[in-house]
Amino acid sequence: MDADGFWDLVESSAADGPACGHAERLTARLAGLPLPEVLEFQLRLDEARAPLDTPGTLAVAKAVLRDWVGDDGLWYFYGWLLGLGREAHHLAVHAPDVLADHPAFRRLAALPRERWDDHDFPEWETLNYCAHEAYEQLTGEEDGLEEALEAIGHDSPCNAEFDEPVWTPEQRAARLPRLTALFAEAT
């Protein structure tokens, strides 16, 4: 599976119904593929996450979540960004402030955070399990995907890690002025 195949699966599973069924649709589609494609999906997922591992993406998450971002929350936020599709991913990596124009970001900003429900919250934790569940459905092996990844020398990350310094609130406001303003108005 190449990057186009990865994004096609992610985007089509998001487009075909409500967010609450996104992971189930993706898992079902993966389970309908040959086993090597499921492994390749996980590799492409890890590749897509890697460039998000920056202080800039953390700053985006902090703007959206009003500074309530822990390790797990950031990792799940990455999943949400990926679920928005290739274009949102590209913006998050290369022009994060432009995300202020993205409909998903504008919708979140229009809703007071205390009114967010599970469908509004910008996270997609279950993305982490789609390929694993599909692999298990195809093989009956609970840890089969992990073992297959280890066999090829790949260790999937399980949380965000970057070496660069975290941006201060002042740096975030200067580097992400539109996002900062959009979500400052939402508080």
Could you explain how this protein is built, in words?
This protein starts with a helix and ends with a helix. It has one domain (3-157, 166-184). The model has no long low-confidence stretch (mean pLDDT 90). With 187 residues, the protein is mostly helical. Helices cover 61% and strands 0% of the residues. It contains eleven helices and no strands. InterPro entries: DUF4240. This is DUF4240 domain-containing protein. It holds the Pfam family DUF4240.
Topology, number of strands:
0
Q: Spell out the helices and strands N to C.
A: HHHHHHHHHHH
User: What structural class is derived from the secondary structure elements?
Assistant: mainly alpha
User: What is the arithmetic mean of pLDDT?
Assistant: 90
Largest sheet, in brief, is:
none
User: Shape, please?
Assistant: globular
InterPro entries: DUF4240
Protein name: DUF4240 domain-containing protein
Domain DUF4240: 1-137
In a few lines, what is going on in this structure?
This protein has 187 residues and is mostly helical.
